[in-house]
Amino acid sequence: MRSGFCLQCYVAGALCALLLLPRSSWPTSASDAKPLTAILLIARDDLPDSNFADSVVLVMNNLGPAPVGIIINRPMPIPVSRLFPDLNRLAQVRDKVYFGGPIGFGSVWFLFRAATPPEHAIQACDGVYLSADRQLLLQLLGREKPMDTLRIFVGHAGWAPGQLEAEVEQRDWTLKRVETEAIFSGKSEHPWPSPQAQKRGT
Question: Measured between alpha carbons, how far is 179 from 160 in angstroms, rounded to an integer?
Answer without folding.
Answer: 25
